[in-house]
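During the reporting period the student researcher (J.K.) took over the structure-prediction task from the postdoctoral fellow and processed the backlog of single-chain submissions. One of the processed entries is reproduced below for the supervisory committee.
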Amino acid sequence: MRDCSTIYLNGVRREVRGREALMMMAEWLRKEASLPGTKIVCAEGDCGACTVLRAFPTPDGTPRFEAINSCIATVAQLDGSHIVTVEGIQNGPELSPAQKAMTDCHGSQCGYCTPGFVMALSAMLERHDQVDAKTASNYLTGNLCRCTGYQPIIDAAVMARASKTHSVAGRYLNDAATDDLLATQKKPVTIKNDDVVYFAPATLRDATTFAAHNPGFRVLGAATDLGVQINKGKPLPQAILSLHLIPELYAIKKNRTGITIGARVTLADLRRATMDTAPEFSRFLNLFASPQIKNVATLVGNIANASPIGDTLPFLLIAGGTVHLASRPGGKGPVKKRAVPMTAFYLGYKKLAMEPGEIITHVSFDKTPPREFLRLYKVSQRKDLDISAVSGAFALTTSGRGPARVVTSARIAFGGVAATPVRVPGAEAALQGVVLSPDLIETVAQLIAGALTPLSDARGTAAYRRVLAANLFRRYGQEVLGV
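J.K. obtained the following structure tokens:
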């Protein structure tokens, strides 16, 4: 058992204990590690000024550095990682390619956001020798500039070229450090500070035992929500469980009909894994969250957060989504496992069909059949990195050809229109067995508008959401009909 979070920081091994381990990484870097190059602005994971690079070695794969937000990630949850900050990317007196390009293109402007941009560009150069403007923009969706605009920064990204002498992986991912972290990850962690206990077990059995003995425990995954709450002054939960040391929860398993995703699989890895099994879902994952968020956030976290506007939830409702749970009642005996369909998992606002002491270990869903017409939509005020007002998921299969096509199956789900994400069974039934036509699409759109009872909030009124949901189906109908 360890009593510390073990990381390599710019190539130096660090053990962080007690209060410091429960600090946000950005705050710890600035106040305790004397590395103030990492900036804190929004403290919500939105602006990217706090971006650092993280590599987490696993026994089954080669670690790679990816950009993450350090303002909403605790030091403890990054245990077992290589962390590189803006102070660590310069090689001797020579600026890194990202730093030099930002300087040459006058992309620094006021300079406060610049370290975050430099780190995002450095992550980009770990994957690409050079990029075009579109690729650069995709890598920078999690970085906000507050001065004269993006063009000098985009110019810098296009100008930058990867360099072997400045490769972050080449400089920091040496075998000795990686082997040390892999060995360290086999040892569970308990960190205590005042009345807070943080536990990171190395087995599912130990995780469920902790859950059984600590009512009210919280699972700390990516902390993309919990980290924001803490930064706004809410106290840490008294019992915190991290699953980051359990190898089986990083697994992605595919079979003939579906795919099973472990609780620690990130959205970035999920997007890559579903390119062939659920290509529309893979495409949709590009439309929300920044690279910094997707590199740590998980599908299971999106499910457990239980937000009615969780972006992945409508898809899971129509794709045969199943939540896999584990518990050890009373902390004794074998681990008990059970599965709950997504359609029965949400009982009310933030209320889940979970028993005390249960944790979500995996989620599974069906592959998209070749003949199924699946479309996923999200409407928000901004295209990137914004909370949706309404999201929709629609899937139809038909038989026959041309104007005589008959609907053989239909599934419709929405987020943002109720206290939970919902299916619309009345609209689904109206489609079943009917010839597909513009009149049918319009009839079902009106059924949808009549079936939903949304709430009004800052992102839209109830009337707006009702009209929007119906219009999303009309748009889908036009795509199905090819008109």
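The committee noted the following: The chain has a mean pLDDT of 94.
J.K. will present the remaining backlog at the next meeting.
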